[in-house]
Amino acid sequence: MADEKQFDLRRALDANEIIPYFQPMVELRTGKLTGFEILARWRHPQRGIIHPDEFIPLAEQTDLIGQLTGNLLRSAFAAAAVIPPHLTLAANISLTQLTDRTLPHHIRNAAQQSNFPLDRLILEITESALLGNPELAYLIAHELKEQGSRLALDDFGIGYSSLRQLQALPFDEIKVDASFVRSMTFTRESRKIAAAIIGLGNSLGLLTVAEGIEDQNHADMLLWLGCDIGQGYLYGRAAPAEDLPATLAQRMPSPAPDLPSTPADATMPLRLEALPTHRLAQLHAIYDGAPVGLCFLDRNLRYVSVNKRLAEMNNIPVASHLGRTVSEVLPGLAARLEPYLRRALDGEVITELELTGPDPHQPGRHCTRLVSYQPARDEAEEVIGISVAVVDITARKRVEQALAESEDHYRHTVELNPQVPWTADSKGMVLDVSHRWQELTGLSREETLGDGWIKVLHPDDIQHTLATWSVSLRTGQPVDVEYRTRRRDGSWRWMRARAAPRRNAIGEIIRWYGSVEDIEDRKRVEEALRRSEARLQAIFDAVPVGIIITEAPTGRILMGNPQAERILRHPVIPHQMIDSHRRPGSINSDGHELKPGEYPLARAILQGETTSAEEFLYQSHDGSRTWLSATAAPVRGQNGEVAGGVLAIQDINEAKREKQDLLDLVSRLKCSLDPPE
User: Fold this and answer.
1) Looking at the record's lineage, which domain of life comes first (predicted)?
2) Is 0.70 topped by the overall pTM?
3) How far is CA 277 from CA 172, 185, 620, in A?
4) Element containing residue 20 per DSSP (H, E)
C-alpha cells in the first residue's frame, strides 16, 4: 500500500497535479492585503482536492519533498505575475528541507525563472525543523536570509519552544498557531498564551502574524493585543492561481473601529499582565505621567496601583498606598467615599462626583476634587475592582468664586458708569438697557425696548441715525453715531452711541453690545474751538505778512495764508513741499547765491535756529525777482523736539527801490554841493 501511495505521489509530481493555493494575509489595523501564504493542494484525478496533511508527510519520508517544494514555488512565482509588487508570498519549509544544503540554491533558481524578487518571499520554519541538526539548520537559515528572503517562526508555542531559537536565528516574523486563535475568545489560557507570544514578538521587534482568524471577535481581540497580520476564513479561504484576480479585486473587511462593537469587547482590553511588554511600559509611562490622579481598588477597597499624581494629591507616597484600604489611607474621607465605592462594586458607573475636604498640603484650607468610579470587569463580566480617576478642581473653584465676585463688582461698576450699556438682537431690536437711560431721557426701560428709543431722538437726527444703524445691521460693521436726545426737562443733549456685534461659531451675528454716552460738553467745547479757529483763521488771512507753516524735517507745507501766495506769486498748497517754492538764482544781500540749507526756514526746521529778519532777492516761478525779508522759527513738541517751522515773509521790493532812489538823490546832492577842484 505504501508503495502505491509513493508511486501515486511521484506520478502527481510529474503531472503537476500538486498546485499552489493562495490564502490572503491582511494587516489587522487597516484591513489592507499584505500578501498570500502558499498552500499545497493535490488536484487528484479521482479523489479531487487532497489537503497537504495527507501527502506532505509521505513526501518527507520518500525524499520527494524537495521536488514538491520546487514545483510548488515555480508555479507560485509564475502566478505571482498578476500580484502587485508590494505584496509578499509566504511558503513553508519542512523539517527535512532545512538539512538540505542545496535548498537556498533551488529556491533562488525557482525565483529567477519567473523574475520573482526574493525580498518578497517569506519562508516559514517550524520549531521542530530546528531540532534535528540545529547547527546545519542555522547555517541554511542564515544563507536563506542572506539571499534576500525573510524568515518566520511558524506555529510558535505548540512544539518544543525555545527562546534560544529566536535569539540564534535571524527571524523577521513570529506566527501564532491557529489552535490558540480559535479558542482565545472562550478560553482564558489561550488568550494569555496568544498575548504572551504577541508581546514577545513585539518586544523583539518581530512582525506578529496570527493564523486561524474565523470571525471578527478573533480579529478585534488580536488587534487589541497588538498583533500585526492576520489570516483565516474571515479574510478568505485558500484559492487556486486562476482565482487570484478576483481575490485581489475583492474588498477586504475593515478592522474594528476604536472600540469593538462585538461581544468580544467584554474581554478587552485584557488584564495588564497579558499585554505585550513594550505596550505595558508605554501604558505605565502614560499612567504615571497623566495629569489626573489614577488608581485601581480591588473588591476589598485596597489600593492595587496608584499613579504619582494621585499620590501627590493625597500628599502620601505611592508605596504607602499599596495594599492598604481607603479607610486606612484617607480616614477623614472614607465614610463619605464608601457609599459611592460600594455602588461602583455593584456595577454602577459614577462620574463627576464633587467632593470638598481638608487640603493635605495646606492645613486649615479646603480643596475640591472631581472623582469618577468605573467598575472593572473580567472576561466573565464579574466586577473585580474599581478604576478611580481624580481631578483637583480647587483652582477652578477659586477662579469661579473670583469670577462671581468680579461679576458683582462689574455690576456695581456698570451702575456707576456714566455711560449707558445696552444690548440688541441681530435685527437691531433693543433687548436691554441700563436704568441710567431713564435718568437721562425720562423713557422707561419697557418704553425703550425694541425701537422705542427712537421716540426721544431729535427729528433732524432720526433719518441719519437709522440709516447708520441699518448699514451696520446689514454689513456687521461696528456702529458709531451721534444724535441729540430729549431730556426730562425738554432740553436736547448730544449723545454718542457705539456698538459691536457678537457672532456664533459660523460667523452669524447673534447679539449687539453697545453703550451711549453724553457728549454735550464735548460738543460745546468743539463748537467753541471751531469759533476760535475761525477767528484765528481770519486773523491769519488778514495779516499783511506772508506766513507759511511746515512740518519737520520734511518741509511739507501744513498751511499758508493768501499774503504768502501774493508775495511768492504762486499758490501755497497744503501737503506741498516747501522746496517747490525755492528757485535757483536767489541771492542774499551780500550778493552770493543762497544754497538750500541757508534759507531761514531750512535752518529753523533742520537746526532749530530762530532767525532774525534777513533780506534776499527771490527768484519767482515766473522769472521775476523780488526783494524779500524773511524771519523763521522752529515749532517744538512736548519733549522739546523740532516738530515744524514758521516762516514770515514781507515784500520789501518797493522799500528797496525807494531806499535806492534816496541814496541816489543824496549822492547827486553831494556832488552838486562839492566845489570843483
Assistant:
1) Bacteria
2) no
3) 18, 21, 97
4) strand 18-27
> What cell does 652 get?
520789501
> In 10 A of CB 233, how many CB atoms?
13
CB contact set of 98 (below 8 Å; sequence gap of 6+): 125, 129, 130, 136, 137, 140, 141
pLDDT in tens, 68-124: 999 999 999 999 999 999 999 999 987 778 788 889 999 999 999 999 999 999 999
> Which tens digit of pLDDT belongs to each residue from 247-261?
898 854 444 444 343
Per DSSP, the residues of 578-604 read GGGG--TT-EETTSPBPPGGGSHHHHH
Count CA atoms closer than 13 A to 622's CA, side-chain side.
Answer: 8
- In the set 37, 127, 173, 211, the catalytic residue is 211
Which residue do the cell numbers 474581554 mark?
267
What gap in Å lies between CA 369 and CA 350, rounded to an integer?
Answer: 14
* Cell numbers that stand for 343 in this block: 455602588
Q: How far is CA 445 from CA 110, 115, 420, 429, 430, in A?
A: 96, 91, 12, 13, 10
Is position 381 annotated as part of the catalytic site? no
- For residue 135, the surrounding DSSP H or E stretch is helix 134-146
